[in-house]
């Protein structure tokens, strides 16, 4: 189904993992994508993946989502977008007492501030156009917490109040905003956990496996195409949060 024909999307963290899977899903549905990440090579590779959908007009922008200058550039390059996906994110795998201050700043900047900046920069255009959809990739750890993930969980649970508030501010302009809360998903972000943890101590959700990036992309497609959903936290975690 080509439900996203003539829609333009901007996807942060679109060079890899969940962001790339969402871009590929949207491109297959007819959308034109602009991808953002800090490294150019993976972005170029990702654009080649998207081109397999048949369209050739996907683009990329290199930069850090925690840098306001990147968003000024993004708005200039791509002023009117229909869908913003904030997927860029960094993990943390250390107890707070052992986490360097620089890492704390980096995680909050990428996961929370980056999403707030992106939303602020694009909300103006979306409210003016009287349509828009914003999808943030949060985490199930925002609700469960996790030892070794305190700053990461704080950055993601900040998105909960943010989305509720922006949904209230923007609904009258027909702009929707939602979070997806993935559980453990097979991407580079979880590669270290998967390779260095014994099978019996790996996170094991009731459905008995890690999820795939494509399963998160399906959730993003649902949020992009259902015009009656806003202000939600959509959990896609194999049942991990039930415990
Ligand atoms: N994988 C999971 O199990 C899981 C579970 C719950 C939530 N999530 C969330 O899902 C999102 C995507 O994760 P993933 O698993 O797809 O991770 P990934 O495979 O490591 O990809 C992360 C992407 O974000 C980009 N990125 C990271 N920091 C950035 C920054 N400051 N500015 C711009 N781009 C940045 C990376 O490219 P560059 O390095 O080139 O910048 C890459 O494109 C994250 O927000 C993560 O917290 C993941």
Explain this structure to me?
The chain has one domain: NAD(P)-binding Rossmann-like Domain (Rossmann fold), CATH 3.40.50. Helices cover 44% and strands 15% of the residues. The chain has eight helices and seven strands; from the N terminus they run βαβαβαβαβααβααβ. The N and C termini lie far apart (36 Å).
Biggest sheet features: 7 strands, parallel
Provide the spatial order of strands within the biggest beta sheet.
3-2-1-4-5-6-7
Mean pLDDT: 96
Question: What is the end-to-end distance?
Answer: 36 Å
The hetero molecules present are: NADP nicotinamide-adenine-dinucleotide phosphate
CATH architecture: 3-Layer(aba) Sandwich
The backbone outline, from C-alpha atoms, is globular
**C-alpha Rg (nearest Å):** 17 Å
Query: What is the fold-level CATH name, i.e. the topology?
Result: Rossmann fold
In CATH, the homologous superfamily goes by the name NAD(P)-binding Rossmann-like Domain
Kindly estimate the percentage of residues that lie in beta strands according to DSSP. 15-25%
Number of helices: 8
Give, in order, the helices and strands. EHEHEHEHEHHEHHE
Question: Which class in CATH terms?
Answer: Alpha Beta
**Structural category:** alpha/beta
Total separate domains: 1
Pfam family, one: adh_short
GO molecular function, one term: oxidoreductase activity, acting on the CH-OH group of donors, NAD or NADP as acceptor
Domain Ketoreductase: 7-183
Organism: Arthrobotrys oligospora (strain ATCC 24927 / CBS 115.81 / DSM 1491)
């Amino acid at each position: 189904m080509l439900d996203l024909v003539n829609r333009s999307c901007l996807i942060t963290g679109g060079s890899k993992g969940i962001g790339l899977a969402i871009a590929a899903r949207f491109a297959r549905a007819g959308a034109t994508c602009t991808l953002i990440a800090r490294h150019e090579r993976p972005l170029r590779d990702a654009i080649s993946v998207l081109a397999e959908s048949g369209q050739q007009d996907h683009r990329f922008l290199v930069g850090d989502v925690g840098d306001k200058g990147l968003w000024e550039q993004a708005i200039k390059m791509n002023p009117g977008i229909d869908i913003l996906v904030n997927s860029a994110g960094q993990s943390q795998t250390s107890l707070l007492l052992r986490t360097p201050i620089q890492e704390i700043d980096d995680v909050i900047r990428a996961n929370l501030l980056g999403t707030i900046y992106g939303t602020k920069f694009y909300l103006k255009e979306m409210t003016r156009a009287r349509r828009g959809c914003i999808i943030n990739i949060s985490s199930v750890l925002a609700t469960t917490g996790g030892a070794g993930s305190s700053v990461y969980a704080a950055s993601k649970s900040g998105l909960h109040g943010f989305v509720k508030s922006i949904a209230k501010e923007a609904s009258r302009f027909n702009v929707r905003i939602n979070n997806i809360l993935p559980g453990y998903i097979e991407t580079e972000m979880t590669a270290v956990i998967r390779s260095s943890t014994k099978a019996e101590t790996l996170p094991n959700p009731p459905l008995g496996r890690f999820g795939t990036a494509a399963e998160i992309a399906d959730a993003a497609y649902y949020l992009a195409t259902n015009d009656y959903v806003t202000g939600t936290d959509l959990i896609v975690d194999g049942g991990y949060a039930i415990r």
